[in-house]
Specification:
The protein is mostly helical. The protein is built from 21 helices and eight strands. A three-stranded mixed β-sheet has the order 1-3-2. Strand 6 and strand 7 form a beta hairpin. The longest helix is centred in the C-terminal third of the chain and has 32 residues. The relative contact order is 0.07.
Length: about 475
């Protein structure tokens, strides 16, 4: 007896990945996704994580025949799928000659149509009748499921959670509603909402990394324990990675709103001395007001002292625009330009680093994860210079051998000093933030007594 195809109709979710839809179709047919995917000829292999296992954010591109095949399986017109699936019309040179064959090509979703996140299973069940996993393209300002009080996590990380519960955190849900008006304001002033959000996100993510040393910070720890189910416990470092975007979201929206406010730009101009240029003060009106707007009146001086960060870069662009002065090469005076070194590390990247550190604690191979971006660039540049000098030493290509050796040793000494200062500051911040000294000692592979003496001496030197 032939089954009624209407019973097997699988409607796409808005902005769903094509790979996610194929998996849901397979479930409706009672098949494993791998079995259904055998209906297409694949030109490459499915993307996977370093430690094994398929990536949830894997995406597929289909030839014309492949798209017709999927539409038939779904019982949905191709036009409907084209409107719902961002990857539906994506072309690739490997597919152009395959229009008559159902051919598929694997890609990583983030490289096709932007950030990829898990969908809310309860919403999926409400729309489709089945609580299956769904994966969708979703920017970070659309990660809150207000109906079910959930923060939807990135799908590119090798970790089991799909969402974080937002019970007791109405400010996170409200921040998504506020972002709608902030995005509209960005459009009115001629700025792209995506770039405004990215800059604000970079500013707040940098604060998040510094917050270990903020003695007066009480808002983020409360939220972090909340999204961790009540207590992050001994797994605090992992929860700081997984929960970061949800915990800081209200501050990201508040900072974006402040950066778009012409009154705040006037405060930056006044702090710079207006017509009489001067160095930005540590107690400037702009940073003080910004701290108040994110609910931290004490934050102003700390934000003003963070030289080399995205906030100071934005302030510099605002000042140069008012003065009519040119900006550094490459990005001029665009206040919404986000330098590569200021872009926050992703959850997936941080979890990979954390996993490697747990396997080989204190190996020193993961130092880049603990060093601020601008210091990381300086260290890398120095190491590259040392490597070049080492090659010169081996070949004795230029200059006396002794001179090259001296330059090499100076470079190595400078790099070692930078790295040592970086890990000392990180270890001191961890201890001040409540991480047990024994745990920090295990990370850096050093006896507790030696570490205590080094950090005590370092604290005395900084305190003067």
């Amino acid at each position: 007896m032939t089954r009624n195809p209407v019973l097997l109709r699988t409607a796409p979710l808005q902005r769903e990945t094509t790979s996610s839809l194929i998996c849901r179709v397979a479930s409706h047919y009672g098949l494993e996704a791998k079995a259904l995917r055998s209906c297409w000829h694949w030109r490459n292999y499915q993307p996977g994580h370093e430690g094994g296992g398929a990536r949830a954010d894997a995406e597929v591109l289909l030839s014309a025949a492949g798209r017709r095949l999927l539409a038939g399986m779904c019982g949905v017109e191709e036009g409907v799928l084209a409107r719902a699936l961002p990857s539906w019309g994506e072309e690739d040179a490997k597919l152009r000659a395959e229009d008559e064959d159902p051919v598929g090509l694997w890609r990583v979703g983030g490289a096709v149509a932007g950030p990829v996140a898990f969908g809310c299973r309860l919403c999926t069940a409400r729309r489709t009748g089945t609580a299956l996993r769904a994966v969708r393209y979703a920017p970070r300002w659309e990660r809150v499921c207000a109906r079910h009080g959930r923060w939807l996590l990135d799908a590119d990380a090798n970790q089991p959670l799909e969402h974080l519960a937002l019970r007791g955190l109405p400010e996170v849900v409200e921040a998504q509603r506020r972002w709608v008006s902030v995005g509209r304001r960005a459009v009115r002033v001629g700025a792209e909402p995506e770039r405004v959000f990215a800059l604000a996100y970079a500013v707040v993510a940098r604060w998040w990394e510094q917050a270990y040393g903020w003695e007066r910070e009480a808002i983020w720890p409360r939220r972090l324990h909340e999204v961790a189910g009540g207590d992050a416990g001994e797994d605090l470092e992992r929860w700081r990675i997984v929960g970061r975007d949800a915990v800081v979201f209200p501050e990201v929206v508040a900072v974006a709103e402040a950066l778009l406010d012409p009154v705040m730009a006037e405060l930056v101009w006044a702090d710079s001395g207006a017509g009489r240029p001067r160095a930005l003060p540590a107690d400037g009106m702009f940073c003080r007001r910004l701290g108040e707007q994110v609910g931290r009146p004490w934050l102003g001086p700390l934000a003003a002292a963070d030289h080399g960060g995205p906030l100071l870069a934005w302030m510099g662009s605002v000042i140069r625009l008012r003065r009519g002065a040119g900006g550094p090469p490459g990005y001029g005076n665009d206040p919404w330009w986000l330098r590569q070194e200021h872009q926050p590390a992703t959850m997936a990247g941080q979890l990979r680093v954390l996993g490697k550190e747990k396997k080989a604690p204190g190996s020193g191979t993961m130092w880049r994860a603990a060093v601020p971006a601008e210091q990381r660039m300086l260290i890398t540049s120095t190491l590259d210079s040392v490597q070049e000098q080492l090659l010169q030493l081996r070949g004795v290509q230029t200059g006396p051998t002794a001179d090259v050796a001296r330059r090499l040793l100076r470079g190595l000494g400078h790099s070692a000093g930078l790295i040592e200062n970086a890990w000392k500051r990180t270890a001191l911040a961890a201890v001040n933030g409540g991480v047990p000294l024994q745990e920090v000692a295990r990370w850096v592979d050093m006896p507790v007594e030696v570490l205590r003496e080094m950090l005590t001496a370092d604290g005395r030197e900084e305190g003067g």
